[in-house]
Amino acid sequence: MKSSLNYPIALILIILFAGYLLYTGYFEKPQVDIPAYQKLCSRYLQAPAGTYTHDHMQLLVYKINYLFPGPVEKLTAAERQLKHCAEQLADKLKDTK
Question: How far, in Å, CA of 63 to CA of 69, rounded?
């Protein structure tokens, strides 16, 4: 008798968990402080060589590319500007190596 109740209860729990994830915004794009990332990216671009470590600058490029994947055409103006700054920073990193 007990084993026959386990499957419906498990199914109900799975459905409730899926509903929780869908209706709480779990899969929404995270809120990103774009001006702060833009300011940091600009600071890294304008800094003379050796001011910031290569790893810190590369980490910023990775973060921006992770937050805004895909083509630039699908991004907002601020996101597009930030992505462009990350591309410039990546080019700067390639030139310094």
Answer: 10
Distances from the Cα of 33 to the Cα of 20, 36, 84, 90, angstroms: 26, 6, 16, 20
Q: Which amino acid is at 87?
A: E
The residue assigned the tokens 């470590």 is 53
State the residue for tokens 């991004």.
75
The pair of three-digit structure tokens given for residue 96, joined into one six-digit string: 């310094």
3-state secondary structure 70-89: CCHHHCCHHHHHHHHHHHHH
Q: According to the model, what pLDDT value does residue 63 have?
A: 92
pLDDT above 80 (res 44): yes
Structure tokens at 95: 């030139």
Q: Report residue 79 as tokens.
A: 């996101």
Decide: 80 and 67 in contact? Cβ < 8 Å.
no
Cα 72 to chain centroid distance, Å, stands at 14
